[in-house]
What does this fold into?
Amino acid sequence: MWDKLSATFVRGLKKPGNFGDGGGLVLQSTANKAGGVTKSWLFRYQINKRQRYMGLGSSRTVSLAEARLRANEARSLLARGGLFGVDLVPDLPVWKEYRNKVRFRGLRRGGKSRITLVESVRQDRTKKLTLFDQEYIEQRGRERKSRRFSLVFRTLTVPQMTRRLENAGFRIKAVLGDYSGQPWDPRADVWLILAEKC
It folds into this structure.
């Protein structure tokens, strides 16, 4: 089932295209602005006769062997009886916007650098998005480096998400309001859906 790609091929690939390994695993290579290629692993599958793709990670951080394992896990999850959880960002009205809140402070391995993660949360209610703006600060002596990035979540209500899962051939096993198994409530900080492939 697996044998079409090799680690040497993946490392040396310089042209754009989609390259299948078998079993639904695909290496997607796209041209980038620097004149090279960016390579990502995808898992190709079908739900209700529609072809879909699931991202499995960049080939820089995910080896061919690891991509094969992840594709195997995805395949078993999508098989009849496969159980998985969806952890949703709670609905927009629940989230309070805040700016520049320190979420983490600590020492980097080796103890020579202090790291701080500063977060701001904002909402775009018209697009139903919750945006987490992150600043990762590393301080080593007088040298200070800062990196900024954003995490964007499209907010769906629990009923919207459960309908989507049911339409995709999943049966909802439970809707939880925390990681200990408590029932869901719209005011809960955690919205967790457990679904099983029918």
Q: What stands out?
A: Residues 80-198 form one domain. The radius of gyration is 21 Å.
